[in-house]
Amino acid sequence: MRVVLQRVKRASVKVEGEEVGSIGAGVLILLGIEAADTEEDIDWLCGKICRMRIFNDAQGVMNVSLEENGNEALVVSQFTLHASTKKGNRPSYIKAARPEQAEPMYEQFKTKLSGMLMKPVASGVFGAMMDVELVNDGPVTILVDSKERE
């Protein structure tokens, strides 16, 4: 599992012009699910996201986690995070999980994250063409990969 984690002042996602999810201050999580991913990847990644100290403390130092500050989370599925660009100019998505595997894992991820944060998690619509808008705070953008554990 791979995420692009963005600290945001606000973010929203629309499908066919209709807003389906939005948050104020918090994190936008672009989530890519690989065919080799398991529930262990979900557990590790959700824990990492909740505990990662990417929000400023009173001294302006990134020393506060999402679970500590109570900010919000917006999760958007994005299979293109597993694009391979080794050969040619057309990305290959062979590592990305097929929808019949990825969608249940996406739902599990949202449920797990919501439980860890003890609040609802906003989301996009799996498999839909989405318009994602955000105001990156910082900017702070971090890549996290459950296979690399970084």
Defining key terms:
single chain; 150 residues; alpha/beta; D-tyrosyl-trna(Tyr) Deacylase, Chain: A; 6-stranded mixed beta sheet; two-stranded antiparallel ribbon; 8 strands; 24% helix
Molecular structure report:
The chain contains three helices and eight strands, in the order βββαββαβαββ. It is α/β, with parallel strands linked by helices and 150 residues long. The chain has a single domain (2-144), classed as D-tyrosyl-trna(Tyr) Deacylase, Chain: A (3-Layer(bba) Sandwich). The strands form two sheets. Strands 1, 2, 3, 6, 7 and 8 form a six-stranded mixed sheet that branches.
For the terminal residues, how far apart are their CA atoms? 11 Å
What percent of the residues sit in helical stretches (DSSP H or I)?
10-25%
CATH architecture: 3-Layer(bba) Sandwich
CATH topology: D-tyrosyl-trna(Tyr) Deacylase, Chain: A
- Secondary-structure-based class equals alpha/beta
Q: Which quaternary structure do these chains form?
A: single chain
The arrangement of helices and strands along the chain is: EEEHEEHEHEE
Give the radius of gyration: 15 Å
| DSSP summary: helix tally | 3
Quickly name the level 1 CATH class. Answer: Alpha Beta
Write the layout of secondary structure elements.
Elements: E1 2-15, E2 18-23, E3 26-32, H1 39-51, E4 53-56, E5 62-65, H2 66-69, E6 72-77, H3 99-117, E7 122-123, E8 131-145
Compose a concise summary of this entry.
Helices cover 24% and strands 39% of the residues. The protein is an alpha/beta fold.
